[in-house]
Amino acid sequence: MKTIIILIFILASLLTYMAEAQTSSSITYDGGTSLEVQTGADVCANNIYINGSWSGGGSICTGALPVSLSSFTSSVNKRDVTLMWVTEWELNNSGFDIERRLTPFDPPEGGTSEWKKIAFIPGHGTSNVSNGYLFKDEKLKTGTYQYRLKQIDFNGNYEYFSLESDISINPPGNFEMSQNYPNPSNPNSKINFELPVTGKVNIKIYDIIGREVMTLIDETREADYYTVEFDGSNLASGVYFYRIYAEGEGQKFIKTMKMIIVK
After folding, report:
1. pLDDT in tens, 24-80
2. Start and end residues for every CATH 2.60.40.10 domain found in the chain
3. H or E stretch covering 207
4. Closest by Cα among 228, 164, 178 to 201
5. Is 2.60.40.10 the CATH classification of the domain at 67-169?
6. DSSP strand E in the chain: where?
7. Dihedral sign from CA coordinates of 8, 28, 33, 63
8. Residue burial 44-61, b: 16+ Cβ < 10 Å; e: rest
9. Which residues, 6 or more positions from 123, have their beta carbon under 8 angstroms from its beta carbon?
10. Which CATH architecture is the domain 176-261 placed in?
11. How confident is the model at residue 112 (pLDDT cuts 50, 70, 90)?
C-alpha cells in the first residue's frame, strides 16, 4: 500500500502557499492511500479527499474545515421557511448551528439586526457519502431575513456557509383565522390569524348558548401574521365558539369557529 509521510517543513510550505493564494484549495489522495501525519504537523485545505486511511499524532485541517457543502437552498410557504443543504462528505463534523437575522435594511423596531442562533442540527461525524439536512423555521413575522450555517467540528473549530438570497416574508394576501390547536384543548391552545391590512381586531370566546365568556384581543394590529394564546383554565369542559371581527382600510372580516375544552 502506498504510504505518504508528511514532514513538518513540507506542510509549512503548503500552508504558507495556501495563505498567500487566499483561494479555495483542495488536496486529493488516491484510492488505497495510507496517510501518516506526524505530531506537530497539520494537513489543511478547504477540501480534503482521503480515499484511504490516516494515522499519526498530527491533525487533519486546523484551517478551513473539511466539510464539502454541495448545496444550500430554501423554500417559503407563507410565513414558514424551509432550509435544505447537502454535504458531499464530512470529516469530524459535530453539526450545524442555524443562525438568522433581519437584514440590516429591515431591523426590528427600536433595535439593530444581529445574528441569532435558532437551532442546532447534529452532523454525521465522519462520512464519505452525501448527506441531506432539513430545518423548518415557522411562524415568522413579516420582514426580510438572512440565514447562515455555522458548521462546527468536534474540536470547536467552525466556518460559515451563507444562504445566497435573502428571504422575504410578505404580508398576507387575505384575512384568515385558523382552527385552534390543539383541539380539543386541555385547556390551553393557540389560534393563528392573518391580516392583509392594518386595522382593528377583536377575537372573543362564546359558550354553547352564545354568552360571551372571554375577550382574547381588542386592539389595532398592523398587517401581518399572528398567533394568539387561549387559556381555558377558568372555563368548564365543553363546546365553545370563537369569533374574529377585523376591519381596516374599508375591508371587514368576520369568522366563527368551534373549539372543545377537555379537562
Report:
1. 444 454 544 555 555 444 444 445 454 555 555 544 444 445 688 999 999 999 899
2. 67-169
3. none
4. 228
5. yes
6. 3-6, 26-37, 42-43, 47-55, 59-60, 67-77, 80-102, 116-127, 131-137, 143-153, 158-162, 167-169, 176-177, 188-195, 199-206, 212-221, 224-231, 238-248, 251-261
7. positive
8. bbbbbbbeeebeeebbbb
9. 67, 90, 93, 94, 95, 96, 151
10. Sandwich (2.60)
11. low
Nearest-CA neighbor of 228 among 174, 186, 262, 177?
177
pTM: 0.65
In Å, how far are 9, 13, 114, 205 from 149, measured between CA atoms?
A: 34, 31, 15, 43
pLDDT of residue 157: 85
Partners of 69 in the beta sheet? 87
Contact (CB, 8 A) for 175 and 196: yes
State CA 207 to chain mean position distance: 40
Listed in order, the ranges of the chain carrying CATH 2.60.40.1220 are 176-261
DSSP 3-state of 31: strand
Identify residue 150 by its one-letter amino acid code: K
Residue with cell 517543513: 9
Terminal-to-terminal C-alpha distance of the chain: 70
Chain length of the chain: 263
Is residue 118 very low, low, confident or very high in pLDDT (cuts 50, 70, 90)? very high
Which alpha helices (DSSP H) does the chain contain, by range?
8-21
90, three cell numbers: 464530512
